[in-house]
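input
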Amino acid sequence: MSSNTITVLLVDDEDEFTSTLGERLEIRGYTAVTASDGEAGIQCIINRDIDIAVLDLMMPGMNGLETLKQIKNIKPTLPVILLTGHGSTKEGMEGMRLGALDYLMKPLDINELIKRITQAVQHK
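output
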């Protein structure tokens, strides 16, 4: 599977972060879809063909763990990578228990994220 067929959903309330990350992914041949909260992310999963979701844990309203639970109810096989900028490994581990594939800390290393996305989609 070549990277240009991979659609990555980025869900984060920091719009500047998602738009920058989306641009960096698209430069590398991915399709990036962004959502600024959990509810919008869920709608993207319902309405679009998403290959992998990258979710921020700390969002107002529906947090990353709640969003993850709903994603797994809608599309149980969708790989999800969690992001945390607050050093909260506890939530990251809880996310893994709830079905997340992996979690990464912010600030994000784009090459590490791409490696994890590629691995996740190949094993789907």
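quick obs: The first strand starts at residue 7 and ends at 11.
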